[in-house]
Amino acid sequence: MENCLFCKFAKEHPAKVYEDELFYIIKDIEPKAPLHYLAIPKRHYKYITEMTNEDIQNFGKIVNKVGEISINILHLDGGYRLVINQGDNAGQTVPHLHIHILGGKKMDWNPA
Ligand code: AMP
Ligand code: ZN
Q1: Which pTM was predicted?
Q2: Around Cβ 10, how many Cβ atoms within 10 Å?
Q3: CATH label of the domain that carries residue 12
Q4: What is the DSSP letter of 52?
Q5: In percent, how much of the chain has pLDDT > 70?
């Protein structure tokens, strides 16, 4: 998709923490936790509800891999939180679906 930051990053981001054929991981530029990464599918879609059947299958693989990487590469052994913001009320600012990986401290549970 033209003019999409995360589609552009798929091709040219210089500091990917991880990459395979389905997705890549980068550090968030404005961290909301001591450790904050973004796992970004290479296919462009904004909402979970836009997924094709193939996207749905691939998303399972992506989430599973994110779990492995969170422990083995990002060393979030103490625990981590995965977040997907969907739409304005959730604060989605980049219209290309991505999974926030948050960790590095004991987190509160209060999105309000
Ligand atoms: P969301 O608000 O859920 O759409 O998440 C978008 C995330 O992308 C935010 O946490 C931003 O800090 C992050 N972000 C925006 N621009 C960049 C960038 N150039 N590099 C890395 N992360 C970015
Ligand atoms: Zn995109």
Answers
A1: 0.97
A2: 19
A3: 3.30.428.10
A4: -
A5: 100
